Amino acid sequence: MIGRLNHVAIAVPDLAVAAERYRALLGASVSQPQCLPEHGVQVVFVDTGNSKIELMEPLGDTSPIAKFLARTPEGGVHHLCFEVADLVAASGYLVAQGARLLGDGQPRVGAHGKPVLFIHPKDFNGTLIELEQI
């Protein structure tokens, strides 16, 4: 069902500082910041050649990333994103197997302009999983 790893998302307290660290220390190509108010975050993508790293900072105190950073102030891995060919079929299969989708269970448009869903971390050994339709 899952395709390639699209990205690893890392919550950061300061997006500009984190992006510069990836540029300066690792020589990485980093995208321009992208504001995603419907997800409560601002993001940049670090191109690794075969995948991406998504650096995320919260947009306000009600952002899920703000809650994550309250528990882990220095930041850390937030979720893994896998590509799927058919998001509706994948989510239907997962729910039938007992997995729990976050929110209302309906796909939302993600940072790449494609439909995404999140699976509860308790269903994957404490790891939040994002599925993105390709």
Folded structure, characterized:
Strands 1, 2, 3, 4, 5, 6, 7, 8 and 9 form a nine-stranded mixed beta sheet that branches. The protein has one domain: 2,3-Dihydroxybiphenyl 1,2-Dioxygenase, domain 1 (Roll), CATH 3.10.180. It is globular. The mean pLDDT is 96. The protein contains three helices and nine strands. Helix content is 22%, strand content 38%. The protein is an alpha+beta fold and 134 residues long. Strand 3 and strand 4 form a beta hairpin.
Topology of helices and strands:
Layout: E1 2-11, H1 15-26, E2 29-30, E3 34-36, E4 41-47, E5 52-58, H2 64-71, E6 76-84, H3 87-96, E7 108-109, E8 115-119, E9 128-133
Parallel strand pairs: 1-5, 6-9
Antiparallel strand pairs: 1-6, 2-4, 3-4, 4-5, 7-8, 8-9
What is the CATH C-level name?
A: Alpha Beta
Point out poorly predicted stretches. none
- Which bin fits the share of residues in helices? 10-25%
Which CATH-level-2 architecture? Roll
Q: What Rg is obtained from the alpha carbons, in whole angstroms?
A: 15 Å
Pattern of helices and strands:
EHEEEEHEHEEE
Query: How many β-strand stretches?
Result: 9
Q: Characterize the main sheet.
A: 9 strands, mixed
Mean pLDDT: 96
| Structural class estimated from helices and strands | alpha+beta
User: CATH homologous superfamily, by name?
Assistant: 2,3-Dihydroxybiphenyl 1,2-Dioxygenase, domain 1
Q: How far apart, in Å, are the first and last alpha carbons?
A: 12 Å
Binned strand content: 35-45%
Number of discrete helical segments: 3
